[in-house]
Design a protein that fits this description.
- Two copies of one chain form a homodimer.
- With about 250 residues, chain A is α/β, with parallel strands linked by helices.
- Chain A has eleven helices and six strands.
- Chain A has a six-stranded parallel β-sheet with strand order 2-1-3-4-5-6, sandwiched between helices.
- Chain A is globular and about 65 Å long.
- The interface of A and B includes residues 9, 15, 204 and 212 of A.
- The structure holds a DNA duplex (30 and 30 nucleotides).
- Chains A, B: GO terms for molecular function: DNA binding.
DNA sequence: GTGCTTTTTGCGGGAACCCGCAGCTTTTTT
DNA sequence: AAAAAAGCTGCGGGTTCCCGCAAAAAGCAC
């Protein structure tokens, strides 16, 4: 039995190592990686079936690393060990987990027993182990009236990136008006208008930026999610520009 | 000699304790607090002159706790031990440190020797110890052309909160146009216009939200800074409303 | 004081945003 | 198949935002 740890913080890494060796005596080989790319590499080379990783890492996010690992070996069991239960992370993970894979999500605040139990359940019984708190977020996100659906979440990201309505329309293949509709729904669900009705015609908030801010407070967005969204935006911009060049007839005039 | 540790994460706390006891044998009493308020309390009761604290904590930020402690006993030496060197934190600290107090800022990624040396220098020699990286941020923040000055930083926060131009003007006692001037400078410094000049009249970005996003990427803002800004905004709203009520003549009609 | 820079303010207009209304298409329900 | 729900689209207009231009106002040298 082989296990791989991916964790950048040395303090946490040594703690993790301690936990794993004591909870899993049947583990014969234990690898450690200090960042995502290195972890992918090790998993690939040694055909590792059990991974524990941190979600927050510089360079390559845990989510990105997990995506790569699962693409190559979808049966890998991955335990995410994270500081936060932000909706951005939870969403990110549910988006990439293969539907027959076993995985777990444990908060770093969990007790040692809890962590060790999770390790055994997941790696030996192949049973999913999701922290209570995370479950809560997962469900809340699916609530029809409280949570945002994928489309709303998409525009939320887009405006958080700073895109214009017109650009969003272009990117998502929609009309301008449709984008604005989505935005209205978003504003509705985030209760952007709270306390704002005060007598005066004075609007207190710019809805667009206020929505982003509220989303940050509610942990619907976080900075790593935005960083990732930014690189996807860059990709899109690139291919759009390429398409524009091809479409444009050779200019002679 | 008495030392107080304020750190919420148990793993880091035990590590810190280890470091302190080995680096400071002259330390006779060592207190530990798991959150800001508790730390303030202990510092007050026991007249502690040397504190080590984490910056990122739930409930009460390290910065808020430090503010309180320094207000009561400005000669206290405080070592901030933090995961990040975000400009938001650095700014926050320089804003509150008494001008004759000794303090330090060490990143959690620093080596054990580094940390121990810092502890001795600060608590025994009363000498400020600032991490290289943090220094870098500090200087960059003061650069006339790259960094934001306080006024620009202020509007940045305000738009990040989602305020309207008009509201910002009201809050900061400025004319509408002045606010917009500040915003223009801000956009300039953040290079919001990059690559945007492409031939078409199509603006790619909404400058306001784009600026916020870029600021997040550059760590000029972070979520805890915004949370704090939000409560200050709430305060202002409250007193503004109170003022409005007093100003309004008793309505009879 | 006179000059100089920096900051603040007003005016005006083009663009973007927010959104009610109404018609159209697609999906879901019955 | 008919009805209902949900989503997409265009139109129009009220508001806010972004910013160039230019004139006061404040700060700072000499």
């Amino acid at each position: 039995m082989k296990i791989l740890l991916i964790e950048d913080d040395p303090v946490h890494r040594s703690f993790l190592k301690e936990m794993v060796t004591s909870a899993m005596p049947e583990c014969q080989q234990l690898w450690e990686a200090t960042q995502g790319a290195e972890g992918e590499q090790l998993a690939r080379e040694h055909h590792i079936a059990s991974v524990v990783m941190d979600l927050q890492m510089p360079q390559k996010t845990g989510i990105e690393a997990a995506k790569v690992i699962w693409r190559e070996r979808p049966e890998t069991a991955i335990l995410f060990w994270s500081n936060y239960a932000d909706e951005a992370y939870v969403r990110g993970i549910s988006r990439i987990v293969p539907h027959d894979a076993a995985y777990g999500y444990i908060l770093k605040t969990a007790s040692e027993e809890h962590l060790q139990l999770a390790l055994r359940s997941l790696f030996i019984e192949q049973q999913c182990v999701i922290d209570r708190e995370v479950r809560g977020v997962q469900q809340q996100a699916q609530d029809r009236h409280f949570g945002l659906n994928d489309l709303e979440y998409e525009v939320l990201q887009d405006i958080a990136l700073g895109l214009t309505d017109r650009m969003i329309a272009q990117r998502r293949n929609l009309s301008l008006r449709s984008v604005q509709n989505r935005l209205q729904q978003l504003y509705e669900k985030l209760h952007v208008h709270e306390h704002d009705h005060e007598q005066t015609a004075n609007q207190m908030f710019n809805l667009r930026t206020r929505a982003v801010h509220i989303a940050m407070l509610r942990k619907l967005l976080n900075s790593t999610a935005l960083q990732q969204a930014e690189v996807e935006l860059a990709k899109w911009r690139q291919q759009r520009q390429a398409a524009a060049l091809n479409a444009a007839p050779p200019i002679h005039k």
